[in-house]
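Appendix B.2, paired examples.
Example (i):
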Amino acid sequence: MSSVEQAMATQLANIEKRTGKTLAELTAIVLGSGLSKHGELVAMLKSTLGMGHGDANTLVHTVRKAQEGDGAAEPAGSNQVLDGLYTGPKAALRPVHDRLLAEIRQFGDFEESPKKGYVSYRRKKQFAMIGPATNTRVELGLNMKGVEPTERLQALPSGQMCNYRLRLGSPEDVDAELLGWLRTAYDAAG
């Protein structure tokens, strides 16, 4: 992830903290406002939520970018996001992501934040990132501490978006060992 993308992710997380609203809730406010001009939307966010100009501007750009090309009246659902990530040669990898997501849903509540090439999963903070790394592998990034890396669970250098990475080629790779690590990351993010 580029430093620009990291900065954007940080700013959006800070907007969520300052407003006390999730990105999904903020998106619903923008889309439900009935306003269409950028400046009007920025002014509305500043007056109704007390946002600063930079935060309001970033939020409007983010919401509009997420809506480009799909013509939807509301934020894209999880299936639409995943359909966009897993196209062409990567389509065969979709069952891996679906299996991981089904397991995460059994843990409890969380937020999904689609990015350009992956989906970030958060509680109070990000606990996992899932997306197609290649045409043959899905990459699962996990944020957790105190876990010994293995050949399968690769530790990443500090400063990365996640502490660990796993590469998965099929739904069968989502086994008890992996689910233990995923649960550890989920619990740590609460």
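Example (ii):
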Amino acid sequence: MYYLLELREKMKKVYASYNVYIRPAVKFLLALLSFILLNASIGYMSKLNNPFLSILLSVLCAFLPGQLMILVLSLFMMAHLYAISAELALIALCVLVVMYLLYLRFAPKMGYVIIITVMLCGLKLYAAVPIIIGIGLGAASIVPVSFGMLVYVIVKTASEYEAALTNSSVTDTVQHISYLAESFVNDRAFVVMVLAAVVTIIVIVCIKKMTIDNAWTYALIAGAVVEFLIYIVGILALHAKFGIVSLILGLIIGIVGGYVCKVLLFSVDYKRTEYVQFEDDEYYYYVKAVPKVTVVNEDVRVKQINGKKTKKAEAQPVRRSSRPMEFDDDDDDSITFDK
């Protein structure tokens, strides 16, 4: 734990010195990985599969705000979806417009949560999402996590919709939209994912706000157990299709990532807990004070003083003036001597 705390302090110093370069670099890597995953999942428009175009767009996103970065990624995704079906692109557009108007307009920084959620789900680490984000952000992350999982489902099932629409005898646009909407509603895996994410985040937030010792650790463990049980019930009762290996791996990564977030965000020493009681005219107060874990700076510089030079300086005689001392009336603290 102390190693993580030392690493946190070093990261703070590095970020404070080089944040002008670190923030664009992180946004560039995040955007580039998103473009690569989109091309690998739904790369149906050949003109957008050019890696140089992905790099160019990533450089552009590195200097854009979070909202505009999501806009560029959304347009990139809808272009690929339009190559499959105009109706599918229209549904994705409606989802993104609702997402922007109802949430991102008021919480622009949560757009990064949506991007990270889609990326982790694309890597089959969907079980790690609610644990890490629930510990790090809290209840405010429920909406962006749900939107991110919805975008992931649209991306994941794009090729399945292409085959279904190609073999279907439905030709009317309205019937196509109805068919796609029913496909989303009947997707049991998506229902289980969203339900597990929402319940897990709520459990983690409720437990970590308790005043008991090690509340964040209990919240982390309880959230992982609840999420695992929900996925097991969804697999057995609803016949949702999830890989057991990817589910367990996601839970392990989520627990490790949640523990790292817990140490970095909430590191306290319960052994030095103090209880304070006082009162005023209207209330009695019972306060529990838990000190934070601090890292002692080991970079101590000792200045060596040469004793010989000091003694030699002290041995030199002091010349005295035969004239009396003169004081400057303008500055009472200064004294001058005439030689």
